[in-house]
Design goal:
This protein is α+β, with helices and mostly antiparallel strands. Helices cover about 40% and strands about 15% of the residues.
Length: about 240
């Protein structure tokens, strides 16, 4: 079997080839910033599973290419140039997840890993065709917003379920896709974007959070509730 590899791309606006590694760094920086994390060598190293010296070398390379820089506080940040390219990678990834889930019925806990491979081989023209065929979706199966081809895009996470007090109705909007087993389990429980659940109680001493979904009472541990994000609609009637 011939492996899928990234095409050699060097946009005319860039001095650096957009290899798979470069694209992975841009996407990681974009995601970390969207999660509200400060961009540090250790944080990037943990996200990508590479050594700190490798991160430092790539940061220097991307800085020279004007893809990343420093903000007013001296912290690492994507430049406008880097942000544009990072969003393009994220757009391809999330459109691929949506296509795999919608058109090929790939389980939602598997589409992330598949898209990780395919995103580097997808051309802009094919990306546009996939978007058009899907009706230009705004969100992927996990509720992650899909950046538009043109125009502004804000990457932010709504309130985590872990912070919601008992007695609230909570609409699920976004679920982290970084843990496939957690995704599979949440899907089996019926917890997906668009679902409204009622938070009934939290057991003391680090016990689970109890929620009701479609009349079913479920106990969710901290590892799960930290992955579920959404909006509190109202306090439930007692």
């Amino acid at each position: 079997m011939v492996p899928i590899t990234a095409p050699h791309r060097r946009p005319i606006c860039c001095s650096v080839e957009h290899s798979e590694s470069v694209e992975n760094y841009l996407k990681a920086l974009y995601q970390l910033a969207g999660e509200g994390d400060t961009l540090t060598t250790s944080g990037i190293s943990a996200r990508l599973g590479v050594s700190a010296p490798s991160v430092s070398a790539m940061v220097a390379r991307l800085t020279e290419a004007d893809l990343i820089g420093r903000d007013g506080g001296g912290r690492l940040a994507l430049t406008d140039h880097g942000l544009r390219h990072a969003q393009a990678v994220v757009r391809r990834h999330r459109l691929l997840e949506t296509f795999l889930f919608t058109a090929l019925a790939v389980p939602w806990e598997e589409v992330h890993d598949e898209a990780e491979v395919l995103e580097h081989a997808l051309s802009e023209r094919l990306t546009d065709r996939i978007a058009a065929a899907l009706g230009d979706p705004r969100y992927d199966p996990h509720g992650d917003p899909i950046p538009p081809k043109d125009g502004e895009h804000v990457e932010c996470w709504p309130e985590p379920l872990s912070s919601v007090a008992p007695g609230a109705r909570f609409r699920v909007e976004r679920i982290s896709d970084r843990d496939s087993e957690a995704l599979r389990y949440l899907g089996e429980l019926g917890i997906r974007p668009g679902v409204v659940l009622v938070v009934t109680q939290r057991d003391p001493f680090g016990g689970p959070l109890w929620v009701t979904v479609d009349g079913k009472s479920l106990a969710l541990g901290d590892q799960l509730v930290g992955k579920v994000h959404g909006t509190v609609e109202e306090r439930a009637q007692r």
